[in-house]
Amino acid sequence: MSDPKEIVFVVDDDPSVLKGLRRLLAAAGLEVAGFESPQQFLERFDPGAPGCLVLDLAMPGLNGMELQQELAARSSTLPIVFLTGHGDVPTSVQAMKRGAADFLTKPVDDKDLLAAIRNAFEKGRALRMAQAETAEIGRRLATLTPREREVLQHIVAGKRNKQVAGELGTVEKTVKVHRARVMEKMQARSLAELVRLAERAGIRGTLD
Amino acid sequence: MNWITVAWPMIAGTCFTLAALHLMIGFKRHDKQAHLLYATFAAGVACFALFELQMTQAATVDEFGFLQRWIHLPAYVLIVASIWSIHFFFGTGSARFAWALTGFYALLLAINFSTGASINYQRIDALRPVEVWGGVKVPIVDAVVNPWSRLEALAFVLWILFIAQATVRLWRRGDRDSRRKAALVGGSFLFLGLVGASIAQLRHEGIIDFPYLRAWLVFAGLLALGYELSSDVFRATELARQVHVTEADAREQAERLRLALTGARLALWDWDLQAGTVYLSDRWQEMVGGFPQPIVITFRALATLVHPDDFPELRRRLREVLKDRSPEYEVEHRVRTMSGNWVWIHSRGEVVARDPNGRALRMSGVNEDITERKQAEARFRQNEAEMAQQRSELAHLSRAAMLGEISGSLAHELNQPLAAILSNAQAAQRFLAQDPGDLREVRAILQDIVDDDKRAGEVIRRLRALLRKEGIEHHPVDVNEVVLDVLRIMRSDLVNRNVSVATQLEPALPQVTGDRVQLQQVMLNLVINGCDAVAAARAQDRQLTVRTALIDGHIEVAVADRGNGIGPADLERVFEPFVTTKADGMGLGLAVCRTIVTAHAGRIWAARNADGGTTFRFTVPVSRAQITASA
């Protein structure tokens, strides 16, 4: 696993279940933080912390599904493994649609749980990496001048330099210079890579 | 003709009439002596008056002397009759005194006929007419006094003493009747006697010249005695009439009693404890199957007819009454009939006579055939038992249906400890795999597993109790415990439904007597209904309040919701079977609740809250043992 240390956040209103889960996960060598209610968890929640959330579905006050929505609203990337006493299909489908990492029924076998947690970590890592990449691309995009950004949009749309020059009312040579500057600033080694970076940054090509 | 020749025959006639009258009365009545004596007295007075009348008309000394000697005969009769009349009529005279006087007067009579002209005169010299009241001339005598006449004076004094003694004794009895008799009869005898004595004395002293007329005096005495005697007859007659009326009443009452006994189909019994026999009226024979006639049977023989199972109780009750520890004997027992069947007898009675030591001598009472009533009671009890059985089964079905409704959350409730156990056990496996020597953590884990297992067991126990299909058992129940138990069972369901429950339970409530499971069922029903009522409400209204309180010897449990509420018309209807406001409800829950609560002698009802929603309340009376314990 990578640094910083990934943490399993466990939220279950049943103290003995919470205690059992914490023990099991600790015995499996995982870093565990337990919470007896969603509210308690939200108070201590750090959106940047890596790891995953093991969440009981049925709890008084704020239930599991509501906590999931709340976290989404706070644009958390923390993957959620749901635990439920009776896994009814509609609820699990809804949870998965909203991005749950897994949906397990109690009593849960340690292998299943640990596998789910590992997957969630995996997913979390991927999410974090994607997030980091997007942030990097954003940073690179920010270095572009408005003119260079216009050129980038035309290039991403697959237009040739001549066409771009025509659209922008300039000469092909100037477009070439801009293009080289964009490639340099975006650290793209090829046109294909530049297109991929632009897509990740959510930039659509200007066709007309 | 003068007033004497008119009055004296009238006196004589009246006296004869009285004599005849009392002679007749005397022969017909039980107090004949007084009447026969009175008749003799009256006859004596009559003869005496006739002699006197003749004496007033005597022309010669010889004629007068003859009459004067013989007048002592009726005089003797009347004086002796007066003595014995008083003796028997007053009942207070001395018999010895009376006999002595009778003898003494007999002696005087003998003297009268054997000495001189009479006991009064040695010899009579001449007759001298003197004028008495009304210008009538009556002869009196010039005579030499017989010395024996002093004895006559003595006899007269003794007579006065006798009358006086009897009168005083009668007076001293003190009752109104005695005093009246003493005053009227004794008083007039003494008065008249003294008047007569005074006249004799005055004449003897030569102060007045008065002929020998005394018939009016004795006649007056006779009338006084006669008046009292006939008053007695009247009183006796009146009494006899009253007695007759009373006897007729008594006969009528007896007849009424007989009719009442026959009408009520009661058999009369009368137990003579000394003889050991029991009289039983004819109805008894009818009860046990024989020809209806009164019988007398020994107590022992009667006791053998009593059912052996009932006899000890009968003996115990009987003993209590005989020893005066209980005022009335009352027992129900079976008796064998002639045909060998058993009839139920309700027997009541009491001791009607005891000896001075308080030992019972006689007991009597009535027996009633209550076989039909007993049979009806048995049928009623059987019906009751069957209905109770049906109620119990219905309650069970309704309970099972209700648990079906919340089965999902019950499974969750069971799942929680199982989940904890699995996690703990697998954690332990891992710990042991990593460091077999470190048992501290494993020990803690095992303890938690044990606790969770118990918790799961408790959930199952509660469920099983609710699904139990046994009969109703009445035990002391803590209502607060019932409420908390139900809320524990409902915990997951409440969480799933996102309903919160606030409790306001009065601490230290007295217990009620009831079936714990059925009371839980009522409570469960009300909480589930409450949850359904707030299902569509806003989050802050998804709330129930459960209250318990002690009100007027009843524990009241209230479950209030903040839902839409029930229409006023439906507040009572919801307790009817198959009436429901839920889409998937059977409409039996509240009907069963009402049956249960009613069987617990309580009440269940619904009311709309002022601030919206509905409150269901039910009451159960505090068990009697609790009331007496706290009193």
Describe the structure concisely.
Chain A is about 55% helix and about 10% strand. With about 210 residues, chain A is α/β, with parallel strands linked by helices. Chain B folds into 3 domains: about 240 residues, Rhopdopsin 7-helix transmembrane proteins (Up-down Bundle); about 110 residues, PAS domain (Beta-Lactamase, 2-Layer Sandwich); about 160 residues, Heat Shock Protein 90 (2-Layer Sandwich), CATH 3.30.565.10.
Task: Give keywords.
heterodimer; A: 208 residues; alpha/beta; Rossmann fold; Arc Repressor Mutant, subunit A; five-stranded parallel sheet; elongated; B: 631 residues; alpha+beta; Rhopdopsin 7-helix transmembrane proteins; Beta-Lactamase; Heat Shock Protein 90; 3 domains; 15 strands
Tally of individual helices of chain A: 9
* Cα end-to-end separation of chain B: 105 Å
Architecture per CATH nomenclature, i.e. the level-2 architecture of the largest domain in chain A: 3-Layer(aba) Sandwich
Radius of gyration of chain B, in Å, reads 55 Å
- Average pLDDT confidence of chain B is 84
Number of strands of chain B: 15
Kindly state the percentage of residues in helix of chain A. 55-70%
The top-level CATH class of the largest domain in chain B is Mainly Alpha
* CATH architecture title of the largest domain in chain B: Up-down Bundle
Helix content of chain B: 55-70%
| Total helical elements of chain B | 19
Domain module count of chain A = 2
Q: What is the overall shape of chain A?
A: elongated
Unreliably modeled segments of chain A: none
How can the largest sheet of chain B be summarized? 6 strands, antiparallel
